[in-house]
Specification:
It is a single chain. The protein contains 13 helices and 14 strands. It has about 425 residues and is of the alpha/beta class. It has a single domain, classed as Thiolase/Chalcone synthase (Peroxisomal Thiolase, Chain A, domain 1, 3-Layer(aba) Sandwich), CATH 3.40.47.10. The strands form 3 sheets. Strands 5-4-6-7-1-8-14-13-9-10 form a 10-stranded mixed β-sheet, sandwiched between helices. A hairpin with a 3-residue loop joins strand 13 and strand 14.
Length: about 425
């Protein structure tokens, strides 16, 4: 069985955008949403800027019990899942619940709640002997990442395959790729899939400080994220989430659904090389791109736009530039490439799904979002990175890629239905 899979609904929460409409408005305007950290005093830290979401959980309709039980990342995911189901117009209640599943990605899971509870139990680190008298009754939910997709399953009454995917910064792509594979093989008919992360906490900020992966442009937060720019010096940490409804194509057409795109192909590879290091030739990412295109039965020349990982580190930007050239050949020089991390920062495991949402909207509007803050050319990064201003461009096939610590390299091909050769 090899059924075709389409995306029919989405929900997004990102810096500067509390819904899909405002998300696209921000991206298409080339507007940045990065700012000085406001969740805690960032003064002691090397990197003091982030992409924060102005999220009002109670205003989003979450109950007091849900607010107490769910970590902030889980709250994002549940709200986005509800939006995605509403956007798709699907009536999940009319479908067999065991044919609906959930696939959720996250890199650091309930980091927000775990740090908060540690501070309570240890009296802000003053004591090593921590009494369970102050232990939250929901600590299990924070400790076990699988509680996050379980919350979505309860919200949408999904009794089919439910999975947590945690592959670092490729989690958002990998979770959607996993969901598509389950539908293709016949294990599910509908999947609620996406990713969430809320890593703007002192411990996570300190971890990235330690390896000097994040930017030190603290005096200019709006321009701190500079993918492919010669003056970049690290990524901007962010939070966010995006969740989608994936369906089998025939069923979606039968019910008259609006189809954003077909998931034409997906592949992932690992460089088996270094926890944070990347090989300069981009071979593993190139292999994932080729495999995803092969699955979609498309040629490199069919790619209309590349939504890059574009983290804003010299190592990553040069690595994936090499991967695009290696996999697409001369067509790489003719294809617009951009990084939305320049505007919304890097939300770790969530960003792959947030970038899928950006890709779907680029296809819908036939407009390529820009790479903001790109002013100084890096001679090694010599492709068309769509600097600063969005561009009208026929966008029927999008390649979106991700790169993560551990050597993970993932690629997904999204097409207008009928464009894929499958």
């Amino acid at each position: 069985m090899n059924r075709r899979v389409v995306i029919t609904g989405m929900g997004v929460r990102a810096p500067g955008a509390l819904d899909t409409k405002r998300f696209w408005e921000l991206l298409s305007a080339g507007r940045t949403a990065t700012r000085r950290i406001s969740f805690f005093d960032p003064a002691p830290y090397r990197s003091q800027v982030a992409g924060e979401v102005d999220f009002d959980a109670a205003g989003e309709g979450l109950t007091p019990r849900e607010l107490r039980r769910m970590d902030r990342a889980t709250q994002f995911a549940v709200v986005c899942a509800r939006d995605a189901v509403a956007d798709s117009g699907i009536d999940l209640g009319a479908l067999p619940p065991h044919r609906t599943g959930v696939s959720l990605g996250s890199a650091v899971a309930a980091a927000t709640s775990l740090e908060r509870e540690y501070l309570v139990l240890s009296d802000s680190g003053r004591t090593w002997n921590m009494s369970t008298d102050h232990l939250s009754p929901h600590m299990f939910d924070y400790m076990v990442p699988s509680s996050m997709p379980a919350e979505i399953a309860w919200a949408v009454n999904a009794e089919g395959p439910v999975a947590m995917v945690s592959d670092g910064c490729t989690s958002g792509l990998d979770a959607v790729g996993h969901a598509a594979a389950l539908i293709r093989e016949g294990s599910a008919d509908v999947m609620i899939a996406g990713a969430t992360d809320t890593p703007i906490t002192p411990i996570v900020v300190a971890c990235f400080d330690a390896i000097k992966a994040t930017t030190t442009y603290n005096d200019d937060p709006a321009h701190a994220s500079r993918p492919f720019d010669g003056t970049r010096n690290g990524f901007v940490l962010a939070e966010g989430a995006a969740v989608f409804v994936l369906e089998e194509l025939t069923a979606a057409v039968r019910r008259g659904a609006r189809v954003y795109a077909e998931v034409g192909g997906f592949a992932t590879r690992c460089n088996a090389y270094h926890m944070t290091g990347l090989k300069a030739d981009g071979r593993e990412m190139a292999e994932a791109i080729r495999a995803a295109l092969d699955q979609a039965r498309l040629n490199p020349s069919d790619v209309d736009y590349i939504n890059a990982h574009g983290s804003g580190t010299k190592q990553n930007d040069r690595h994936e530039t090499a991967a695009f050239k290696r996999s697409l050949g001369e067509h790489a020089y003719k294809t617009p490439v951009s990084s939305i991390k320049s505007m919304v920062g890097h939300s770790l495991g969530a960003i792959g799904s947030v970038e899928i949402a950006a890709s779907l909207l680029a296809m819908q509007h036939h407009t390529v979002p820009p790479t903001a803050n790109l002013q100084v050319a890096d001679p090694v990064c010599d492709l068309d990175y769509v600097p600063n201003t969005a561009r009208e461009h026929r966008t029927d096939t999008v390649l979106t890629v991700g790169s993560g610590f551990g050597g993970f390299q993932s690629a997904m091909v999204l097409t207008q239905p009928g464009r894929s050769g499958a």
